[in-house]
Amino acid sequence: MGLTETFNSIKSKIPADVTLVAVSKTYPTEVIQEAYDLGQRVFGENRVQELTAKYEALPKDIEWHLIGHLQKNKVKYVAPFVKLIHAVDSLELLQTIENEGRKLNRKIPCLIQIHIAKEDTKFGLSPVEVSAFFESAAVKNLAFAEIHGLMGMATFTDNLAQVAGEFETLAKLFEDVKSKSHSYLSNFNQLSMGMSGDYAIAIEKGSTMVRIGSALFGKR
Ligand SMILES: *Cc1c(COP(=O)(O)O)cnc(C)c1O
Q1: Is the dihedral of CA 12, 14, 15, 19 positive or negative?
Q2: Half-sphere exposure of residue 99, counting CA atoms within 13 Å on the CB side?
Q3: How far is the centre of ligand 1, averaged over its atoms, from the C-alpha of 113 (Å)?
Q4: What is the H or E stretch that residue 192 is in?
Q5: Domain coordinates of the chain in residue numbers?
Q6: Nearest Cα to 57, choosing from 74, 36, 87, 71?
Q7: Does 68 contact ligand 1 (Cβ within 6 A)?
Q8: In this structure, which residue's CA is closest to atom 10 in ligand 1?
């Protein structure tokens, strides 16, 4: 199948109110342009250098999402244009984003990454930390780092019941935070979960944003 068929097939499986983030890491700009020409506007990258290079090279109405782990010293490179930072995993990083946003007088939308997988290698706050995090004064006082929701990655496993359980845990945390209805959470409405292998389950469990790479563009 060519990109057109694959793209249309995946789009047909995603409800209209769920955002498709086309994960273009490692793929060349020509492939991104091809997806752009099919109407795709939201793309995700996991490395800052690759993201900024592609931002320079491609149409300016692309919405660039940074989906991978972000180091504090690299925030300044994406702060001027990034549309959403998915994997904010500490208060320190959030504070750095806040400072860079203030310098630019630009609000920077962020998602807080939650560690739901039974793997040590994935970043994020642990589920038990979430409640206190959102009650902390440091988080409540943010003016430029704007928290738009939560993000998580399930365990890489064939055990679909386990994946479903992990997404359910994340969806529950999302609803818990949302129900606090603090004014600083007025933009809190995105739940980023689901990748090529598990996006159907994620959507079933309440995902509002799926990050799909290899199922769309082929093996990396
Ligand atoms: C690479 C990546 C994806 C996409 O993975 P695929 O399995 O290729 O769909 C999604 N989310 C994050 C955080 C990634 O790094």
Answers
A1: negative
A2: 12
A3: 14
A4: strand 190-192
A5: 3-217
A6: 36
A7: yes
A8: 211
Per-residue tokens: 144: 């430029």
Measured CA to CA, the distance from residue 196 to residue 190 in angstroms comes to 19
What is the rounded CA–CA span in Å between residue 75 and residue 62? 19
Q: Report which residue type is found at 10.
A: I
* Ligand 1 neighbourhood includes 109 CB (under 6 angstroms): no
Sign of torsion, CA 69 188 144 64?
Answer: positive
Give domain 3-217's CATH superfamily. Answer: Alanine racemase (3.20.20.10)
Which atom of ligand 1 is the closest one to the Cα of 25? 1
Q: Tokens 């959030």 label which residue?
A: 94
For the entire predicted model, the pTM comes to: 0.97
**Centroid of ligand 1 to alpha carbon of 212 (angstroms):** 6
User: Both tokens of residue 176?
Assistant: 């818990």
Burial of 211 (0-12, 13-18, 19+ CB in 10 A): buried
pLDDT in tens, the chain (220 residues): 799 999 999 999 999 999 999 999 999 999 999 999 999 999 999 999 999 999 999 999 999 999 999 999 999 999 999 999 999 999 999 999 999 999 999 999 999 999 999 887 778 999 999 999 999 999 999 999 999 999 999 999 999 999 999 999 999 999 999 998 788 899 999 999 999 999 999 999 999 999 999 999 998 8
Q: Which two tokens stand for residue 23?
A: 């994960």
